[in-house]
UniProtKB/TrEMBL annotation:
Residues 45-482 form the Major facilitator superfamily (MFS) profile domain. Keywords: Membrane, Transmembrane, Transmembrane helix, Transport. It comes from Martelella radicis. GO terms for molecular function: transmembrane transporter activity. This is MFS family permease.
Length: 489
């Protein structure tokens, strides 16, 4: 296999970074050969990015299992209960915009390493916290690191992989948020079984430290994004890092000459000044508003599913009289939540398979509508009791979990990292994630109060409406990015 011999001059011309990543080899007679497989370095980047999504799902959704134990140990009232549920989400909100944009300034790799170090520091600290204030600080700090990971993990994958398979690779990594959610719920259940005490919640967080350290070390061994280097006028470094990224045996491509991206000559503004320019408003609305609307449902339902199940599904002790009753109720809720969380994983598998085939926008619109249907079914449970009530809740929540990961929960994340130009891609994706987490924080903070004041049914009907609005906004501000080269954005 060789480069095309009939047009040797093409090797002497400078090409874009994405050209080399997408390039297909040619047989000696000039016919196109199958595309080369992903290199070991590309797969390493993918796996190290997977970890960030896994830890997010683990921490955020495991908080739902740990919540009753934390509430009992610290004697939380309704407001403090909401603060615990929303602290990590508020950290994600701040981290995505305040730290995510650093990847545009200092490079993807440096921030990719820094964010996980920050996560490990607060993950370790929470095990030893003895006060409610420090508990909130630690949860917020972990969220700060995970928020930074939202844009950065997306960028290190999307800027190192072929255009035609980018969507599936980004979403399969994102899908490990669902794996983390399932693992976190099951881990909580196992720990409660082995240690049925109020302090068991500390072990739930502590077991993540060692795998996080392994990932932290691994991130030192990846190349810097050639896209980022090229757009900052560091062409020679971009060529060197691109050769590391595409290292194969036998070598392909054999020669790399990176051109200056057209946007480098024309860009005048960076950061938020560039993000809020008129020509960027359409991608800004598309990436931010639907994500905000879907987070209202996804995080509200996800964090408080154990609470809702414990309140509506039988066999729980109505008023916990002691630690044994508390753990018993928590175990029941954890088992039901783990079953529902499996549908998150099934949904993301569907998104991985379909995003590069039928497009991001179609899946997002369809998913929003499906979420609305699922929530509507669950809302009907308030009119029934017994087996019918249980069936409606599980059916509705299962449909919601499947449709949100097939559609808006997956596609909003994917779209946000694709619709902005390289020099503000981290800033734009970070802003979108932060704006979305406003919705997540609102539901996490207000759900305990609203569940007590207006009830589950009214809350679910409200989320039906927000899901339908999400479908409408996606359709009218649509920008399809399936298969589009990131060099052109």
């Amino acid at each position: 296999m060789n480069e095309m011999p009939t047009d040797q001059r093409r090797l002497d011309r400078a090409r874009s970074v994405q050209f080399y990543i997408d390039e297909r080899p040619y047989w000696i007679d000039g016919t196109e050969a199958p595309p080369p497989k992903m290199t070991g370095t590309q797969w390493l980047i993918w796996w190290l990015s997977v970890a960030g999504k896994f830890f997010e799902g683990l921490v955020v959704f495991m908080t739902g299992v740990a919540m009753p134990l934390i509430a009992a140990e610290f004697g939380l009232n309704a407001t403090q209960h909401g603060m615990v549920g929303s602290a990590s989400l508020f950290g994600i909100l701040i981290g995505a915009s305040a730290l995510g944009g650093l990847a545009d300034r200092f490079g993807r790799k440096r921030v990719f390493i820094m964010e996980l170090g920050l996560f490990i520091a607060f993950l370790t600290a929470i095990i030893f916290t003895q006060s409610f204030a420090w508990l909130i600080v630690c949860l917020f700090g972990m969220g700060l690191a995970l928020g930074c990971d939202y844009p950065t993990a997306h960028l290190v994958i999307s800027e190192s992989t072929p255009s035609k398979t980018r969507g599936g690779l980004v979403l399969s990594a994102f899908g490990f948020q669902a794996v983390g959610a399932i693992f976190g719920t099951l881990l909580g259940y196992i720990i409660l079984t082995l240690d049925p005490s109020i302090g068991a919640w500390r072990w739930m967080y502590g077991v993540a430290i060692i795998p996080a350290l392994a990932v932290f070390i691994g991130r030192f061994f990846i190349p810097e994004s050639p896209h980022w280097l090229a757009v900052h006028g560091r062409g020679k470094e971009a060529e060197s890092e691109l050769q590391k990224l595409l290292k194969r045996v036998p070598a392909y491509p054999t020669k790399v000459s990176v051109s200056e991206p057209p946007e480098l000559a024309r860009k005048k503004l960076t950061g938020y000044r560039a993000l809020f320019q008129k020509h960027n408003m359409r991608p800004l609305i598309l990436s931010s508003v639907p994500w905000f609307l879907q987070d209202l449902g996804t995080y509200g339902i996800g964090i408080f599913t154990p609470t809702i199940l414990a309140a509506t599904v039988g066999h729980k002790t109505e008023h916990a009289r002691n630690v044994a009753d508390l753990v018993h109720n928590d175990l029941i809720a954890a088992k039901g939540t783990a079953l529902l969380d499996l549908l998150l994983l099934v949904g993301i598998i569907g998104a991985v398979l379909l995003a590069d085939r039928i497009g991001r926008i179609r899946l997002q619109v369809f998913g929003f509508i499906g979420c609305a249907v699922g929530l509507f079914i669950a809302a009907q449970a308030g009119s029934y009791s017994g087996a019918t009530q249980t069936a409606l809740i599980f059916t509705g929540f299962m449909l919601f979990n499947f449709m949100t990961n097939l559609g808006p929960n997956a596609q909003t994340y994917l779209i946000a990292g694709e619709v902005f130009p390289t020099h503000i891609r981290g800033t734009g994706a970070g802003f979108a994630a932060s704006f979305a987490k406003i919705g997540a924080c609102m539901t996490a903070f207000l759900f305990p109060v609203l569940l007590a004041d207006i009830g589950t049914t009214a809350l679910l009907y409200g989320l039906v409406v927000t899901s339908l609005i999400g479908a409408v906004v996606t359709f009218f501000f649509r920008i399809e990015t399936r298969g589009i080269s990131l060099d052109g954005r």
